[in-house]
């Protein structure tokens, strides 16, 4: 499309991101973009624009063929999938920020693009303002990647920063994050590491060409963290961060997990604080790259939406270039990691050690009356007991990345020999 011709945009959703995007477009008339129609769900909700600017039926935007691009920024994953898939069946151009929807339905959506000729971009779905999706899809489209890891959720990172700075407990830090607008009223998706898991699944499609099943990726959150755990990390010269990791194992398989991790000053993630996100790319030939930026907020995420809209006008499409050589996924079986496990009640932790097959002598009591233990744990055990760990308020952090367990590695080496 000629950039001198106004691009007519249909905006579905007018929450934090939708308003941020609208404001950015309004401040840059030279871009020649027009938000022609806005669809929202709740008529009675107070909004900064007159009611005449809105329609309350998103399907009206799907039926409006005068709209050049549809922008979907709602928080309902099921409704987002219905709208985006319908738009792609019409061969439309769509920008979306719904990471949960994408992680659950990406293979189907990619197929719809190929079948009907539509285009879907979603930079805003991962790490807010950081251009990591396009970097992986284009710049590293044909370079092998050893690993992609990072802090993909600003809400949990803000809580961890405040606990480290003030020595406050989890509840107080979470309440502050909610007051500042960095955490939702229901923080489960962020604090339970479900949100960064969705983002890791999306990145796996671009970094490795592999479509992972979201629910098969281990995610552990920070709901059970206490000041004792922060103090333990500090004593080790480390910080606790929720880190999403994608990496190639020595056997060539791809593994992925999202958990709290003990991070030292040698890592660029050590200095990523508050609501910021950070991504480390480890490429075979280019070496390590580090990207950092605001991971949430109306203007940072709205900026990523704008970048996608402009890219759609230029005809950009994601390549998914690595699909033909995608590695096999190995997510839990035959893997282990070095774990730190804690609970305020030593009796509870003794039982947890049996779940995770850690020896009883690994248990250490704290001055506050709680307990912790460290040692190698099979990822399969963490996966098998993940719901019980969460339900009982057990905190688990890893030191380093998952690795092939020693007996498995020896067997694989023997086969190769």
Automatic annotation (TrEMBL):
Residues 13-123 form the Aspartate/homoserine dehydrogenase NAD-binding domain. Gene3D superfamilies: Dihydrodipicolinate Reductase, domain 2, NAD(P)-binding Rossmann-like Domain. Its EC number is 1.1.1.3. InterPro entries: Asp/hSer_DH_NAD-bd, HDH_cat, NAD(P)-bd_dom_sf. GO terms for molecular function: homoserine dehydrogenase activity; NADP binding. It comes from the Bacteria. Pathway: Amino-acid biosynthesis; L-methionine biosynthesis via de novo pathway; L-homoserine from L-aspartate: step 3/3; Amino-acid biosynthesis; L-threonine biosynthesis; L-threonine from L-aspartate: step 3/5. The keyword tRNA processing does not apply. Keywords: Amino-acid biosynthesis, Methionine biosynthesis, Oxidoreductase, Threonine biosynthesis. One of its GO terms (biological process) is methionine biosynthetic process. It is an enzyme of class 1 (oxidoreductase). Residues 131-310 form the Homoserine dehydrogenase catalytic domain. Belongs to the homoserine dehydrogenase family. This is Homoserine dehydrogenase. It comes from Hymenobacter properus.
């Amino acid at each position: 499309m000629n950039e001198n011709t106004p691009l007519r945009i249909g905006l579905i959703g007018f929450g934090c991101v939708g308003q941020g995007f609208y404001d950015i477009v309004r401040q840059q008339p030279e871009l020649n973009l027009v938000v022609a129609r806005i669809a929202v769900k709740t008529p009675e909700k107070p909004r900064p624009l007159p009611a005449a600017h809105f329609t309350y039926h998103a399907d009206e935007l799907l039926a409006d063929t005068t709209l050049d691009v549809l922008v979907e920024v709602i928080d309902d994953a099921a409704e987002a999938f219905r709208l985006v898939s319908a738009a792609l069946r019409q061969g439309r151009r769509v920008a979306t920020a719904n990471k949960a929807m994408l992680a659950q339905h990406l293979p189907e959506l990619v197929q719809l693009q190929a079948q009907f000729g539509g285009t879907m971009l979603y930079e805003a779905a991962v790490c807010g303002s950081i251009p990591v999706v396009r970097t992986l899809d284009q710049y590293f489209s044909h370079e092998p990647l050893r690993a992609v890891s990072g802090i993909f959720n600003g809400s949990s990172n803000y809580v961890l920063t405040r606990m480290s700075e003030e020595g406050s407990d989890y509840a107080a830090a979470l309440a502050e994050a909610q007051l500042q607008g960095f955490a939702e009223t229901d923080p489960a998706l962020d604090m339970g590491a479900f949100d960064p898991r969705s983002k890791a699944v999306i990145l796996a499609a671009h970094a490795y060409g592999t479509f992972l099943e979201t629910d098969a990726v281990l995610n552990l959150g920070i709901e059970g963290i206490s000041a004792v755990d922060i103090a333990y990390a500090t004593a080790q010269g480390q910080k606790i961060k929720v880190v999403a990791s994608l990496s190639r194992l020595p056997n060539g398989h791809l593994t992925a997990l999202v958990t709290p991790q003990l991070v030292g000053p040698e890592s660029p993630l050590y200095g990523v604080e508050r609501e910021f996100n950070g991504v480390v790319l480890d490429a075979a030939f280019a070496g390590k790259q580090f990207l950092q930026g605001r991971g949430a907020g109306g203007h940072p995420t709205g900026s990523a939406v704008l970048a996608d809209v402009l890219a759609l006008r230029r005809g950009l499409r994601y390549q998914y270039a690595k699909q033909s050589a995608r590695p096999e996924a190995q997510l839990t079986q035959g893997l282990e990691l070095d774990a730190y496990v804690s609970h305020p009640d030593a009796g509870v932790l003794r039982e947890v050690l049996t779940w995770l097959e850690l020896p009883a002598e690994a248990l250490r009591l704290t001055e506050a009356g709680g307990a912790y233990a460290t040692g190698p744990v099979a990822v399969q055990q963490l996966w098998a007991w993940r719901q019980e760990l969460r339900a009982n308020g057990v905190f688990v952090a890893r030191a380093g990345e998952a690795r092939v367990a020693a007996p498995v590695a020896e067997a694989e080496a023997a086969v190769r020999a």
